What does this fold into?
Amino acid sequence: MTTEKEIRARRLALLGHLPEVLKMCDGRFYALPGTPEEIALCALLAAWQSERDASFTREDAADFLRQLKPYCGSLFQNRPAPEPDSEKLKQLLEQFRDPITGELPKNPWAKDGNLTERMLVEREFPELASYLRSIASGTTFSVVKKQRDEKAQRDRLRAITYGADEHRKNPYRTGASLTALSEFRARVGDDVANFWQREAREPIVLPWLPGEDGKPRNLTMMMRMQRENPTLRATIDKSLATAREWAQIDIEENERTAAEAFSRATTARTILGGVK
It folds into this structure.
């Protein structure tokens, strides 16, 4: 049987790993310390690791937490996904070229495109689907320019530096005046200012944590997770039991500590009361 001491040691180790793991997947590690969400994520990592035969690594843990992006976006920085591999897309398209005529299938997102074809490509080849949507009206100079401009903006967002130091001095968190905020925006530009503003104002919300009524905060999102990723949902459900166990241990320790403190204070007052 696992002792309370071992449970505390395991949780402490996960609390040390969590910030580094989140850094690897653009997680907002700096907004977590001291919150229920921090403990819930440690419990989730504990539940995930208990289902594995391999040793714990931060790289594997980061890959696991990336699965949460569709269901709790507030846990992650607002950065674009990596650019699709153009060579991979070319090779993928070549697989569908007609071996006799050499023609490619009609773009299902073009005018009068086929809905069934769209669903097939979306499901089987999501990166290809994204590209085909972008050229649905054909490849033109304006389309290519738009693609380049959009890529340049995505590159700017990926290049933004934001960590614990930036979070601590974020003017949108520190109560800066409107004048100071305007000067900050003018100095860094809208992309950076909007990024920092979101970091200051959007709390991290995990949909499975219970609200005041004891139910998940976002039951709709949990139902979606059940449909799309039932394995992840099962691990989260398991982690809730771990988090509750940890919470109960904390409550019992706090009660013991409070009782001991009260006893010491009573003894001290008795001793002081006898001093002339």
In short: The longest helix spans residues 230-273. The mean pLDDT is 91. The chain has two domains: 4-72+204-256, 86-159.
